[in-house]
Design a protein that fits this description.
Blueprint lengths: L3 E4 L21 E4 L17 E4 L4 E4 L2 E14 L5 E10 L1 H11 L3 H23 L11 H31 L3 E5 L5 E3 L5 H12 L1
Antiparallel strand pairs: 1-5, 2-3, 4-5, 5-6, 6-7, 6-8
Helix pairs in contact: 2-3
Amino acid sequence: MNAQLKLLPYLLFVTLAACSTQEVKQTEVRYTAIPEKNNSNAANSQSGQVIGLTPPMTLMKEGRQLQLVKIMDGGICKNEYQGAKGAFLLYADTDDIERIKREKGTAIFRAFESKIQDLSGNVLQAAIDETNLAEDPFSLGEDETQQKLASKLVANFRHAATSVVSEFQKETSLTIDITAFQPSLVFYQKGCDESRLDQDETKQKS
């Protein structure tokens, strides 16, 4: 099954097409720790509760400071039992954005946005495929399970993103980075339905 990552326009800090070097106010982002109440399928002891989270607004890469420009969310079922979902952060070099706007106009960023969304979905798919989501018989509880799985998925997401992001940068001359936001990750281990993942996202935004 293909991973789908969706842009969250209401969580947009800086749009690619109209980015400036002005300071961005730090905004608290609120996520609902998935899914329906009393659902035992998610390995998250805080299901149904709202957690206040603030992702890093900047990221250093190759000596450059990148700014958080978009937050995407997405989820995928690895099989009928296991899956994961969460938020994924897109960072970009604002100097690159201003240069490309001058050279090619702002319309180019619509194509960039579509390409980034597609490649992020592919990265998530690869990361999920590489992550063992099976229940750990030696785990001390759901909190430990969540933490271990989140750490593994973040590492696998980073590994899968490296070459893809590098290729994108060569093609576009826009320096970006895409990371999985570890505190937002939620895992399904006893049943996963992609149609319900979409429903959970809708509930989370309402």
